[in-house]
Amino acid sequence: xxxxxxxxxxxxxxxxxxxxxxxxLHERLGASLFSSLEAKEEASAxxxxxxxxxxxxxxxxxxxxxLVNEITDSEESIREIEADLHHLGEIEAIxxxxxxxxxxxxxxxxxxxxxxxxxxxxxxxxxxxxxDFEQEMNELSLKIDFQQKKIEELDNSEGxxxxxxxxxxxxIVTKAQLTKSEAALDKFCxxxxxxxxxxxxxxxxxxxxxxLRERGKELREKQNVLNEEHAKLxxxxxxxxxxxxxxxxxxxxxxxxxxxxxxxxxxxxxVHRRFGSSICKSEWQDYFLKYFTETxxxxxxxxxxxEESINITDSQISTTKIEIxxxxxxxxxxxxxIMVKDKQQRITDAQDAIIKMxxxxxxAEGRIIELSGKNNNTKTTEKSKNGKNSKAK
Length: 393
Prior knowledge:
Blueprint: H1 2-39, H2 44-47, H3 57-122, H4 127-130, H5 134-155, H6 161-198, H7 207-246, H8 250-278, H9 282-289, H10 294-392
Helix pairs in contact: 1-8, 1-10, 3-6, 3-7, 3-8, 5-6
């Protein structure tokens, strides 16, 4: 029986595999016929077939059309979201380039203003403009001169080891102070140059200063244009980002549409499977046979062969199940016969025991009778003795 059960499991596994293959062929047949009819613009051959059944060609075609439209709409929505994100990315890239250009222009203007400030402050012809800056310039220059001389003295000092060590530390501190003073002087000169660009200096005799001033003005104009463009781009970026956020998180929305598309495609596959199965039935097969291409005929032949194989397997499964059921009944009968034989043996043993006990009872009763007879004889003898004794008295 175990061999038959194993065989039954093999048959059922074979049937399941065949059913999966059959579903796949039904799906391919349904998809192929839908596509070929649509390509020939003969979809009316399907839509005209109405039925109360859910699997009617008309209802299945309507369901597929709805699912295809759902996929198309979802894909269009994803493209719109991606287009918005791409546009936002382009704006971000342009802003990044504009910021880089702004930084470059700022560096150019900074260097130009530094050179311009130094030239103006060192040129006596611009005393009318630089008079307001002379005191601060002199203070910074004197401070730098003092620190430079002090460093020179400390570096050239002589004395004991500890004296040289102390002076070395002082030199390091003074050099740091000198660096700050020089930076302050550069900042001051740059500030003077920036103010001169805004100052109405009129005609300038110095060609180098005039050239720097002209270049500075051009850079300022370009910088202003860049600032305006940068501000507009930042506004556009903000407006675009807010518009995207109002519709919801883009990544989550794309994920939701992708899930809808995946489910719709899976449902379309089921529609193809149901359509392929329905046109293989006698109700629709003859009608659609005239629309079959060579591909559909080949699929229909394979489906028929698999269905025949399933019928044979079903018959084998049914036979095997009956044989297993018979074996189960036979096993039950054999078990009951053993139980009956056991019970019968117990009855036989009980009957033998009863006979033995009845014999024992009979023996006991015989002994009782025997003992009772002896007892009566004893009583008679005693009475006789008693009677004789009375007469003697």
